[in-house]
Amino acid sequence: MRKLKNNELGRISVDEFKTTQKTPLIVVLDNVRSLNNIGSVFRTSDAFLIEKIYLCGICATPPNKDIHKTALGATESVEWDYVEDTLELVEKLKSENVKVLAIEQALNSTKLDKFYPEKNQKYAIVMGNEVKGVQQQVVNAADFCIEIPQLGTKHSLNISVTTGVVIWDLFTKMTK
Q1: Omega within 30 of 0 (cis) for the link into 117
Q2: 38-48: per-residue pLDDT in tens?
């Protein structure tokens, strides 16, 4: 077995990305403070043709050298916007018939492996702050609260890891 070179991977250009049909999935970052996490979310969103990223609250925005360090150019391909108030954005998305999934550990949450997205439905996943998680008022406003089952001793996963797990799971279910 031989590792492939970058030019053998058959990746699309930024211009092609912008015109390619996207996965009906939006990522909302709720007060994510780490620029490396933000960059990583951009890179993962590029990999799975995510429709858009919303950066909310204290989130930094591109152009930024620390975001670029992990995004590796994905800020140029993935559409994004800054919105100050996460709750206002969630209400707006819901009014546009987007189902909002708060990714959080909560009473009566739905385990990710037990959640099945509806066909032809657009979803937004809300990822929270590294310490405080998704704001309670945003959890309250969400259509679903989704939790990644964990079996070890730690209380949570890093936000960029969590985003990758959730995007991969929903992408595979939505594209079957």
Answers
A1: no
A2: 999 999 999 99
